[in-house]
Amino acid sequence: MTEARPGRHALIIEDEMLIALEVETLLHDFGFESCDIVDNPIDALKSAVAHRPDLISADLRIIGGTGEDAVRAITERLGPVPHIYVTGNADMLTGKTAAPVVDKPLSRRALAEACQRACAA
């Protein structure tokens, strides 16, 4: 993956902490300097407003809603933000989003390609 520019920040919306930490580690490997991890749409919006992300990684099914809800709320408030979905329910997003979708269990290569596509758009 092309190196991210210095100082880039990611928001990880994931309610399974081990997966969130795996995504965080990989995003750091891809050049993101900081990441926030949240597990619900309300905290996702609060986090994004406090520190605008350069990339959002969202699971589809999360506590208190969906990753789609969270991304929608964030983009309504902040405008477009590159985002990807990392989910075990990729079929539920078919035809519903142009955002890259990474199926769980995730692979380094699939996540790198999705991040590159989202950030290039």
Overview of this protein structure:
With about 120 residues, this protein is of the alpha/beta class. Helices cover about 40% and strands about 20% of the residues. It contains four helices and seven strands; from the N terminus they run βαβαβββαββα. The strands form two sheets. Strands 2-1-3-6-7 form a five-stranded parallel β-sheet, sandwiched between helices. The chain has a two-stranded antiparallel ribbon with strand order 4-5. Helix 2 runs parallel beside helix 3. The longest helix is centred in the first third of the chain and has 13 residues. The relative contact order is 0.19.
Spell out the key features of this protein.
40% helix, five-stranded parallel β-sheet, 121 residues, two-stranded antiparallel ribbon, alpha/beta
Question: How is the topology of this model organized?
Answer:
Blueprint: E1 9-13, H1 17-29, E2 34-38, H2 41-50, E3 55-58, E4 61-62, E5 65-66, H3 67-78, E6 83-87, E7 101-103, H4 108-120
Parallel strand pairs: 1-2, 1-3, 3-6, 6-7
Antiparallel strand pairs: 4-5
Oligomeric description of these chains? single chain
Task: Give the overall average pLDDT.
Answer: 92
**Percent range for β-strand residues:** 15-25%
Proportion of residues in helical segments: 25-40%
Summarize the structure.
The protein is α/β, with parallel strands linked by helices and 121 residues long. Helix content is 40%, strand content 21%.
